[in-house]
Amino acid sequence: MSGLFSLEGQRALVTGANTGIGQAIAVALAAQGARVTCAGRRSSSETIAAITDAGGQAEDLLIDFADPLAAKGVFADAGYTLLVNNAGIIRREDAVSHSEADWDAVIDTNLKAVFFTCQAFGKELIARGREGAIVNIASLLSFQGGIRVPGYTASKHGVAGITKLLANEWAPHGITVNAIAPGYIATNNTEALRDDPERSRQILERIPAGRWGNPEDIGGTAAFLCSPAARYITGAVLNVDGGWLAR
Ligand code: NDP
Q1: Which keywords belong to this entry (predicted)?
Q2: 91 C-alpha to center of ligand 1: Å?
Q3: Has residue 245 been placed in a domain?
Q4: pLDDT tens per residue across span 105-134
Q5: Going edge to edge, which strands form the sheet with 57-62?
Q6: Which of left, alpha, beta for 21 (phi over 0: left; psi -120 to 50: alpha)?
């Protein structure tokens, strides 16, 4: 394993690691040598089995990020150096009918919990003079408006904004803060779109690479952004979208 990409000796926390993109990120980090905590509201037993079967190290941590401050205290004295904020929800309603309850749920999980989890992690590293890396999972809707997802679009624009702010504030402490903006990735989240032949055809036609992304496409990017090879990258919101935004 090249040292440039090695995560040996690092301890990582990945949120929403029981399925989809978070699962692929946890597996990719562990494959590079990190010990991975899978943080979510349900057990990540399948992810942990995949990691340990391959000789890696992983454990579960039950946290519900519907409470944005839920991660407070998790990082104290625990030796974490890597954080990936992946957990997220979407509510599909047009702007005239989007309810306040759905707006609050999406903003709490996708934005407020991301900020306060970063805060808890950053505080610990800064207090100990330890370097580290944060990767936040943003979206194409960090750059574009989208349609029928008002709270989600607001939350993902917010994730891009706080990623840049934290990058500015914490670069002097050796903490990099970046975001990945996935394009259309085949997960449970997008199953309904893939099952709709007309919508699925429209999406595929618009992707220059001619295919949906796999969760592993995002896992590899997250492992890179956590690695020594990416130490001079901070404040980036990197689209991983098969060329969608280049169009
Ligand atoms: P999934 O719905 O498959 O996974 C979402 C993950 O977030 C699950 O592990 C889920 O846990 C977890 N989660 C949701 N709410 C909470 C909560 N309150 N507390 C703890 N964990 C929670 O979606 P994806 O894998 O597709 O999405 C992962 C991330 O990628 C999200 O932030 C999403 O917005 C983003 N994204 C996805 C794209 C795609 O095309 N798939 C495109 C752009 C961005 P549980 O199983 O318990 O619900």
Answers
A1: Oxidoreductase
A2: 12
A3: no
A4: 999 999 999 999 999 999 999 999 999 999
A5: 57-62, 35-40, 11-15, 82-85, 132-137, 175-182, 237-240
A6: alpha
Residue 66, domain extent: 3-238
Which residue is closest in CA terms to ligand 1's atom 44?
A: 139
Atom of ligand 1 nearest to the CA of 185: 40
Ligand 1 atom at shortest distance from the alpha carbon of 21:
25
Strand ranges (E), the chain: 11-15, 35-40, 57-62, 82-85, 132-137, 175-182, 237-240
Q: How far is the CA of 136 from the centre of ligand 1 (A)?
A: 12
Q: How far is the CA of 53 from the centre of ligand 1 (A)?
A: 24
Does 244 fall in a domain?
no
Q: Is 155 in the pocket of ligand 1 (CB under 6 A)?
A: no
User: Can you give the pTM of this predicted structure?
Assistant: 0.98
Q: What are phi and psi of 22, to 5 degrees?
A: -65, -40
- Asked if residue 102 is part of any domain, the answer here is yes
Look up residue 191 and give its amino acid.
E
- What number is the ipTM of this complex? 0.99
CATH of the domain at 44: 3.40.50.720
152 is an active site residue: yes
pLDDT digit string, tens, across residues 148-162: 999 999 999 999 999
Is residue 143 included in any domain, yes or no?
yes
Question: Rounded to whole angstroms, how far apart are CA atoms 203 and 190?
Answer: 11
Does 224 sit in the ligand 1 pocket, CB within 6 Å? no
- Give the separation between CA 198 and CA 12, rounded to whole angstroms: 40
Structure tokens that stand for 203 in this block: 């999406």
